[in-house]
Design brief:
single chain; 231 residues; mainly alpha; 4 helices; 92% helix; 0% strand
């Protein structure tokens, strides 16, 4: 197993794990980008292999062409020497080299077509990767912004709950204060009306008489003091 293939399998495994676990979208985007880069590297490696094969065919074609030229020269030389048999043998070898060159040329043309397709595919793949890289960064920025907004909203929500609790405490305290004030007013009213018992077991009439007696004693004492001061 090649090192590149092993790396591709590792990336694939990581990608599947993150997709299945529904983890951070940033990781998913990064691994998708890595997967595309791995695909681009594989395409370039294959392109390099095909171009290498094309170069080998070109070398073989050049050798076949040289062989054709050499056999043609040998045939001419043999005829000049009246050696038709040698000329025929040289032409036979030339014909074999010509067939070989035709086969090599056909293979080269096929390889050249593959090279062109791979080059075009590699360019398109690179463009897709560039576009995805830009989109990836935009999506990551949007996700980061949304994530920050969620945290802000959660913080504000927690603050609202806390403030709501404070408001409820204030409301309860206010209600209790109003109840206490109303109770105090009620007690004052009852005390003034004499409804509340102050511990005196005398009747209302006896209490009124006591007030009159106390008031008379005070008046008598006041008159006495006035008389003494006039002397």
């Amino acid at each position: 197993m090649s090192l590149f293939k092993r790396a591709a399998e590792v990336i694939e495994a990581k990608f599947s794990k993150i997709i299945n676990a529904a983890e951070d979208p940033n990781d998913t985007l990064d691994l998708s980008y890595e997967k595309m880069l791995a695909g681009l590297q594989e395409t370039r490696r294959h392109l390099a292999d095909v171009v290498t094969e094309q170069k080998v065919l070109e070398q073989q074609m050049a050798a076949a062409q040289a062989e054709i030229t050499r056999h043609d020269g040998d045939a001419r030389l043999a005829l000049q020497s009246n050696r038709e048999d040698l000329a025929r043998a040289a032409l036979t070898q030339k014909q074999a080299a010509t067939v070989k060159l035709a086969s090599l040329t056909e293979a080269h043309d096929n390889i050249a077509a593959q090279v062109q397709k791979l080059i075009e595919y590699e360019h398109k793949f690179q463009e897709r990767i560039d576009a995805f890289r830009t989109q990836k960064e935009v999506l990551k920025s949007q996700y980061g912004s949304a994530e920050a907004q969620v945290k802000v909203n959660e913080s504000l929500s927690g603050l609202s709950e806390k403030l709501g609790g404070v408001g409820e405490s204030v409301r309860r305290a206010k209600d209790k204060t109003e109840q206490m004030q109303a109770r105090a007013q009620a007690v004052d009213t009852l005390a003034e009306s004499g409804v509340l018992d102050d511990g005196d077991d005398r009747s209302p009439a006896e209490r009124e008489l006591e007030k009159l007696r106390s008031g008379g004693a005070v008046d008598s004492e006041l008159e006495r003091l006035k008389s003494e001061m006039k002397k």
